[in-house]
From TrEMBL:
GO terms for molecular function: identical protein binding. It comes from the Bacteria. This is Response regulator. The modification 4-aspartylphosphate is found at D63. GO terms for biological process: phosphorelay signal transduction system.
Length: 542
């Protein structure tokens, strides 16, 4: 018996992901009963990735058990971390296992809903109907968020709460997150405290309070809350991430590694193993780093979810562990599609040069080093820069290695992880004594440029101030600190002198670059607000 089409559902564009043809056809039939005609079907994770890359979907229905290599939860994690899904895309997980709610509650990225088999058209309609209702109620908030008007989104949260109180939990979650991003910590604490007054077992509210404490610098208080959450639920992934964040902020790399290792055991995904590998490598635990990156490659072998940096990282670990032959074999096994990346080609050759040095093959080392140089070009990546610097130092090219390290830090002087990796390059090559000159010196150089530009602006020399920063960006176009300073001072110039078409374009370009480099950063969010406020004051009247 066919159902009367739901007009609000029938217009949706849908993607079905299931490795069983009969299940795909079954779901397709149910959607057809609801009047849905725009339906694509994917049998594998890679096929689904290609579909999502090619177009946007309103509704994705995905089976949890896809194949031996990956499952629906890992696919959802990949989509979310790569920002491949629209904020309005609905992701429904389908499973025959009633215990999936335990997986979803522990996971960092949760589906919008999950459904137990067998599915029916009426059950799908009921679930989608509810998601669309919530989506419609939250529309004023999401529209403000799309425009990066986070202060306006917070106001809309209060308005939606009055008009649609049934979504109070969703509204409070969103409002609390927005307040933290705006550094309105006292207000965020109030939201989470109100939530806990309603129900004292709301884990998301406890985690929200912990995040408030981290932002406020009250790390010990944050740790107490996180440890309390884990005492109640040892499976909660977000708590381990916060614990690792607290440990890193307190300089405890061992603690951070332990927390991330535990999270990877709970949800053994490529992303989790990658995080373990990164921290293990930085803290000198090469055996654990090798094991973690091995897992990453196994998780992603032959898949579009594979990342070139994983193979490069594992090869570097082999070199650092004194196993150059294994590093060379691994690099030679790289998929052909990686060759299209300048970053990969340059870093690959740089790691090969290091391996040949260990083998005593100076001719091959020099050839690989030259290949790395040529492949790098002018816009050399961070990964390739560090690998090339390490190769240079290992080959006695100290002056070139020093310049590469200094240039890397100048390109992003606020990046603490980059600084740690640069120090590791110097330590591994016996050049620790150069750290103060190359790393600390580069940081001071960038800070002095920003300080000088600010001083010129205060001295009523705004044109000279902006010219100073534009000159700096010509040589380090992705330095987040300089980009932020440039955006701020250009907006200050316009707030004093009025609208300038060129400067508006520049600021939007700076912020677009920052959104790509440090997505979700609160300082960038504040700069978006500064842009809106400035333009509303100085925009020419039509």
């Amino acid at each position: 018996m066919s159902l009367v089409p739901f007009s609000h559902i029938s217009a949706l564009r849908c993607l079905i992901i299931d490795d069983m043809p009969t299940m795909r056809q079954n779901i397709r039939m149910h959607l057809g009963q609801l009047g849905v005609t725009k339906v694509d079907q994917a049998a594998t994770p890679d096929e689904s990735i290609r579909f999502v890359q090619a177009g946007s979907y309103d509704l994705i229905i995905c089976d949890y058990n896809l194949n031996k290599e990956s499952n629906g939860q890992q696919l959802l994690e990949f989509f979310r971390t790569q920002n491949m899904l629209s904020p309005t895309s609905m992701f429904i997980m389908v499973t025959a296992e009633s215990g999936y709610n335990l997986v979803a509650s522990a996971a960092e990225f949760q589906p919008d809903a999950y459904m137990l088999k067998p599915l029916t058209a009426s059950r799908i309609a009921e679930r989608v109907d509810r998601l669309l209702e919530k989506q419609h109620a939250m529309l004023p908030v999401t529209e403000k968020m799309k425009r990066k008007d986070f202060a306006g989104a917070i106001i809309e949260c209060d308005n939606v709460l009055k008009s649609a109180p049934k979504w109070i939990v969703e509204i409070m979650k969103t409002k609390g997150t927005l307040l933290i991003e705006q550094r309105r910590i006292d207000e965020a604490r109030e939201v989470y405290t109100q939530a806990l007054a309603m129900r004292d077992d709301l884990v998301w509210a406890k985690v929200g309070l912990a995040r408030c404490n981290i932002v406020a610098g009250q790390l010990d208080d944050a740790r107490t809350i996180v440890e309390d959450v884990l005492a109640q639920n040892k499976q909660f992934i977000a708590a381990y991430d916060l614990l690792a964040q607290i440990d890193e902020a307190q300089g405890n790399q061992e603690g951070a590694l332990a927390a991330l290792t535990m999270s990877s055991e709970i949800i053994p995904s490529a992303r989790r193993s990658r995080l373990v590998g990164e921290v293990a490598y930085r803290s000198g635990h090469l055996d654990q780093a090798r094991e973690a990156y091995d897992k990453v490659l196994k998780h992603t072998k032959g898949s579009l979810t594979a990342q070139p940096t994983d193979l490069l990282s594992l090869a570097q670990v082999h070199v650092d562990s004194g196993d150059p032959d294994q590093a060379l074999r691994l690099l030679e096994s790289a998929p052909r599609r990686y060759e299209e990346s300048k970053m990969f080609a340059s870093a690959q050759a740089a790691v090969q040069a290091q391996a040949y040095v260990q083998l005593g093959d100076t001719i091959s080392a020099q050839q690989a080093f030259e290949t790395a140089r040529q492949a790098a070009g002018k816009d050399i990546s961070e990964v390739a820069t560090l690998a090339l610097a390490k190769a240079a130092f290992s080959m006695g090219k100290d002056e070139e290695g020093a310049k590469l390290i200094a240039d890397a830090i100048k390109s992003d002087h606020e990046n603490k992880t980059l600084q740690m990796l640069a120090r590791k390059v110097l330590a591994d090559t016996g050049k620790t004594a150069l750290a103060e000159e190359l790393i600390d010196g580069a940081v001071k150089h960038c800070m002095s440029i920003i300080a000088e530009a600010n001083a010129l602006m205060r001295s009523a020399k705004p044109d000279e101030s902006l010219a100073k920063l534009e000159e700096a960006l010509n040589s380090m176009p992705e330095n987040t600190g300089v980009l932020l300073a440039s955006a701020q001072l250009h907006l200050l110039w316009m707030s004093q002198r009025g609208w300038n078409d060129e400067y508006v374009k520049r600021v939007r370009r700076y912020l677009a670059t920052l959104d790509r480099l440090i997505p979700g950063n609160d300082r960038v969010a504040k700069m978006h607000k500064f842009l809106r406020d400035t333009l509303s004051k100085v925009a020419p009247k039509s």
